[in-house]
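Task card 7
Instruction: Convert sequence to structure tokens.
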Amino acid sequence: MTAAAPHPVLLPYQPPWHWQQFHAHYALRALPGVERLDADGYRRSFRLDGVCGWFAVRPAPGQPALQLHHSASAEACLPALTARVRRMFDLDAEPQRIAAHLAEDPLLAPLVARNPGLRVPCAFDPFEQAVRAIVGQQVTVKAAVTIAARLVSRLGEPLKEATDGGLERLFPSAEALAEANLDGIGMPGKRVQTLQHFAAQVASGALHLDLRDGSAALIERLCALPGIGPWTAEYIALRAFGEADAFPASDLGLLKAPLWGAGGIGAKQLEARAEAWRPWRAYAAAHLWHDYAGG
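Output:
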């Protein structure tokens, strides 16, 4: 097992915050060898600022906080790692303020009342999330995870010292994905081209995955790439960066949420209604997805 840092980092949050929401989200999407969950913990391998290692998160007993354990190697990038983990588990949200705003919509209010602490789970790494979003175009979450797991198996570098938590590999780099032979990976040829063109743009530095110029600019940059449309770009903004106002209005789960009744709602109609939910449309999406999933 890789050496662990001697003391965990405590990551406080404003309650309510529900571990089960995050456990369910990551359990459905976990990549073997990269991520692992148990009943009250999540762990994964990572590459960040030239550092490779692992971290593990679990609720702190009796406190509104998470405990962050990490490999000794992570000390070299601890502020950046801590910021990523806080974003991943949406620990900086103001749940009471968000819930009060969304509850002003009489249709959304019952969903908010049932789950006032619902948050927006994010990915640890923006590039990884973007890859997953491209892979997940027009397929189920389960199918997308299967394909992403194949990418990890083929192209993921070994984690130099395996942990006792089943973490064995790193998610593939942009360079590895751009240059790989992906025959037989399980995606249509056009989607493979989309994925590899995207990876090449990131690898070359032509495309920067960040919000320095705002989420609208990132979405515009992504939509300029072949094979990436508004749903994929908005979903990347939401899940890769926790952008609070990102809203993939054409998402099937949002359009078919039971809230709208048997006929669902059209994307343009939903987009118009969602204007009232700004600047927290991503949290409205979380409530609609939870409703769609039977929450």
